[in-house]
Structures are given as C-alpha cells and as structure tokens.
C-alpha cells in the first residue's frame, strides 16, 4: 500500500470512473457477500471488542494512499482494521443500552436511498422524498393511533404533520426552539434567560443539552426528582409546584419534556396529567418516546401513549426498536408550521414555484440542517415488507424474551429485579446483603466487568435511586431465546465467581419480596 508523499508528482489516471457501471454489479455483490458473512459470523465474535485505545493507528497507514486499490483490498482492510474494533451491535448477544434494530427490509431500503442519493431539502429538490416522508409518517401515526391532528393528511384543517429527523436530540432541540420563540412572543418579548424548561431526573441528558444549545439559562432547566415509589415517573403535582414557583418568581415556563420509556428504566411519565399542568401555564408538551414508542404499535401497549392527544409534539425512533436502522426519528407536531416559523429560511438559490405556491412543505424548514437523507424510504420499506402484523410480532417476541429473562432473575434469590419490567428491558442486580450498598455496588460492578470481559454478552448499567443496577435490554435483531438463556447462564456463572466463598446463608437475607412498586 503506497502512502502519500508530500513531494510526489501529481499522479494522473486515465479514464478514472468512480461509478463504473460496467463493474458496479460485481462491486455491489462484493459488499453483499461481506455483509452476509458478517451477520453469519457475528454470533461467534466478541460482542465488546478486545482492543485498546489507539488500536487502529497500528493497523492502518497514517497517510492517505497515493494510488488507489481494488475494492477487494479495501474490504480486506475493513476485515483487518475495522471489524476487530467493532462493538457488535448486530450480535444476538448484545443486551446493552437500547439495541439498534435493523431488518433486511431497512437494509435494502437504505441501500437504495443511498444509491439514489437525493438531497431533499425542498419539495422540488426531490418530490418523492418529501411526499413519501409525509405518507410514511401518516402511516406510522395510524399505527400508533395518534389523533388525526398529528397527520398531514388530516381533514381537521389544522397544521399537523411530521418530519423525520436523524435523532431524538434533534427532535427535542427543534421543538424546544419553536416553544422558546412562541413563549417569547406570548410574553411580550421577554429575554430567553427568563424562560424555564422542565423534565425529570430521568429525562434523557440530551434534553439539558438542547436547552444549552437553545440558549436557556442553565439555572432554568428543572430536572424534577423522581422516586421508586412512583416507578421513577415524573409526578405531575411536583411539576405543578415547580411551574407555580417559577411563575411566581417572574419566570416563564415554556417547555416540558415528558418521557414514555425512560432510558435508565423505561419509566412512563403520565402524559395526561402533565398536559393538564402544562395547559395551566401555556407550556409546550413534548413526548420523548424514543424507545418505547415503538411498542405502542401493539394495542396492549398503546395505553402508555394515552394523553399524547394533548401534547404539542411526539418523537419516536424506529431505529431503536422498529427494525429501521440508524438513523430515523419520527417527529409529529399538531402545529407543524411552528417549526418553520423558528427554523425556516428562504435563500434566493432555493426559491422555486412549488415552495411559493404554499402547496408543499420544504423539509429544510423543519430541521437543523439543510441537506437531508432520504430516510423515509427505509421506513416505508420496513412497513411495506413486514406489515403491521410483522412489526407487532417483532415487538411481542422481544417482550416475551425479556419476560422470560425477568422470570429467571426472579427465580434466583441472589438477585433482585429493581423495577418491574414494562417493555423489553430488565433492570436487576445482585442484592445488597451483609456488606450493604457499597458492597452491592462493588459486586455488581465486578459482575458487569466479568460478563462483558468474556466477550460472550454485552450488558450495561445505570444508577436508580442510588443503587448501581444492571440493564439487560433484549431486542438485538438476531437475538433468540437461546441467546437470552445462555446470557443468563453466563451471568449466573460469573455471579458464582463474584460471590465466591460467601455462604449462601448470608445471602438468604431479609428480602421477602423482591419488588413492590405501584405502577399506574
Ligand atoms: C435513546 C434515547 C434518546 C437519545 O436519542 P438520540 O436519537 O441518540 O438523540 C433520547 N431519549 C430517550 C428516551 C432515549 O431512549
């Protein structure tokens, strides 16, 4: 592999064709083989890679190659350099964070979108991308039984509709900016430093980050404490207290981020009660259902979205649990023009008839960036290929595997389930026994290190109510019951190592009931 020499005379290549149609099929087939081989082998690979920081620099040349190579050479480099450093999210033994699911339909849809490669900032820049996005968001809205006010096809005459963002972070930021501008207008031009935004101490950290970007005073971002007793959900009465105190102090409540399925423990904030409080103070309600929103396509989970009909906006990330592949966050608003009021631009070089006609939406005005990928295609391909029945079966199968895991944990008295499982995440840990909380944390940290160090599973942690807790998230696309069962065997074996010689009597302890939390 030749590397670049600053003094190398310019290399000229005759007939260089970066998209050589004669060789394209063969080249694409190389990538197909690569992908299929990867998926077939991934189960046998360590889930968490065994590499040290800086590992890649020892494998790949520091300077860019002066002369090109074949795609086969590049694929060999990927094998040698990239795969060993992959945290294998596609592994069926991946139980960390929230899994990023990807069905073959999304893979194909995204592949085609990549090949078409439109930059769909305005309707005219790619009518198909804009219109498929509206269609697929309306489909999703029906799947989730969202009120018609959130659909762009609604006859209700409102300005409802959606947009696909890359991440929940962008959805929160953009809705926060729209809420900010509305609050400033309504309060007669108060400075942004007087506005207040609310979440709970379980709200994703990206909410506080969005507040920073949007210019909120850090002192005016309220993360209301939650407790085990209410399942770590935001308590509406405490929200009201906070808003009332702020209003009395001359501040302006502007935005509340409610969560359906918090990241630590999948707690569900009571949307209706939060909307009641927000209405008193004229506050924008955003619902972040990044993970658990996908489950609400099943009737038995839909109740967790109850109250959403009174929210201003809702975001769900099909890239988490709906097989769509990163990245794809659906954002719906009951008044979509509010986004454009805050984020719209109209430069000369993008002006065109359809935009001026007012008959079309230009997605650049509903997001942070201008250019955007054709993400709707993969989401549409997923829905078209799997149908509602397939997607519901997928959610239910993950939930069933998580239920089985929860049952195995509950059957071993060395462990406790820390909050009752709601979706496909189980929060559990080795119980605190004689050594108290500090010893329990040490035990669980050690367990996590041993499990993850084995390469045979990857599990992550959180802290809930001061307790160090393991999160076992079922739902990597290739995961089957046998993977869950063998992860549990691994956890038990490593727990034997952690607890070592400690007599089981000492673990018999005084924990009659593992979990008594009132939910709902
Ligand atoms: C994953 C997650 C996020 C972060 O989403 P990004 O798309 O990475 O910005 C936000 N909120 C919740 C509830 C999540 O689970």
TrEMBL record:
GO molecular function: carboxy-lyase activity; pyridoxal phosphate binding
One Pfam family cited in the UniProt record for this chain: Pyridoxal_deC
Keyword match Zinc: no
Coiled coil, from the record: none
Record flagged with keyword Transmembrane: no
Required cofactor(s): pyridoxal 5'-phosphate
One Gene Ontology term from the biological process aspect of the record: carboxylic acid metabolic process
A cellular component annotation (GO) from this entry: cytoplasm
PROSITE patterns, A to Z: DDC_GAD_HDC_YDC
Alphabetically ordered keywords of this record: Decarboxylase, Lyase, Pyridoxal phosphate
Positions bearing N6-(pyridoxal phosphate)lysine: 320
Superkingdom of origin organism: Eukaryota
Family listed: Belongs to the group II decarboxylase family.
Record protein name field: Tyrosine decarboxylase
Annotated source species: Ensete ventricosum (Abyssinian banana)
Source lineage: Eukaryota, Viridiplantae, Streptophyta, Embryophyta, Tracheophyta
């Amino acid at each position: 592999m030749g590397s670049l020499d600053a003094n190398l005379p310019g290399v000229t290549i005759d007939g260089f064709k970066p998209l050589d149609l004669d060789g394209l099929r063969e080249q694409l087939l190389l990538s197909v083989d690569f992908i299929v081989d990867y998926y077939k082998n991934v189960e046998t690979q360590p889930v968490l890679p065994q590499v040290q920081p800086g590992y890649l620099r020892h494998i790949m040349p520091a300077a860019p190659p002066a002369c090109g190579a074949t795609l086969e050479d590049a694929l060999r480099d990927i094998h040698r350099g990239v795969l060993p450093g992959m945290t294998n999210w596609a592994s069926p033994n991946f139980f960390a964070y929230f899994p990023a699911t990807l069905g073959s339909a999304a893979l194909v849809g995204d592949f085609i979108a990549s090949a078409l490669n439109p930059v769909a900032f305005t309707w005219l820049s790619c009518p198909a991308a804009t219109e498929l996005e509206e269609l697929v968001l309306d489909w999703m809205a029906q799947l989730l039984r969202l009120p018609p006010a959130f659909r762009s096809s609604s006859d209700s005459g409102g300005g409802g509709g959606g947009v696909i963002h890359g991440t929940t972070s962008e959805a929160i930021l953009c809705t926060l900016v729209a809420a900010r501008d509305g609050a400033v207008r309504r309060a007669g031009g108060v400075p942004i430093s007087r506005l207040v935004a609310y979440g709970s101490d379980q709200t994703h950290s990206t909410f506080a980050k969005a507040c920073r970007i949007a210019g909120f005073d850090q002192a005016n971002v309220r993360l209301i404490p939650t407790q085990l007793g209410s399942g770590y959900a935001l308590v509406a009465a405490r929200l009201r207290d906070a808003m009332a105190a702020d209003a009395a102090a001359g501040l302006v409540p502007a935005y509340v981020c409610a969560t359906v399925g918090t990241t630590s423990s999948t707690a569900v904030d009571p949307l209706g009660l939060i909307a009641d409080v927000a209405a008193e103070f004229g506050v924008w309600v955003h619902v972040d259902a990044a993970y658990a929103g996908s489950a609400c396509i099943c009737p038995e989970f839909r109740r967790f979205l109850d109250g959403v009909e009174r929210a201003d906006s809702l975001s769900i990330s099909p890239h988490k649990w709906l097989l769509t592949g990163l990245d794809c966050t659906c954002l719906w608003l009951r008044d979509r023009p509010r986004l454009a009021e805050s984020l719209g631009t109209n430069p000369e070089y993008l002006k065109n008839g359809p935009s001026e006609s007012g008959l079309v939406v230009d997605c650049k005005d509903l997001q942070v960036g201008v250019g955007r990928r054709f993400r709707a295609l993969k989401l549409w391909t997923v829905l078209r290929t799997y149908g509602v029945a397939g997607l519901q079966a997928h959610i239910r199968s993950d939930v069933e595997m998580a239920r089985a895991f929860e049952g195995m944990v509950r059957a071993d008295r060395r462990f406790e389930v820390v909050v009752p499982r709601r979706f496909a995440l189980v929060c559990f840990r080795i119980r605190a026994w004689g050594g108290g909380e500090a010893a329990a944390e040490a035990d669980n940290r050690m367990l996590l290190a041993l499990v993850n160090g084995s390469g045979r599973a990857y599990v992550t942690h959180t802290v809930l109510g001061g307790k160090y807790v393991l999160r076992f998230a079922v739902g990597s696309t290739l995961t089957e019951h046998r993977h869950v069962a063998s992860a549990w065997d691994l956890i038990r074996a490593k727990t034997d190592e952690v607890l070592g010689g400690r007599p089981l009597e000492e673990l018999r302890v005084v924990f009659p009931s593992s979990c008594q939390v009132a939910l709902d």
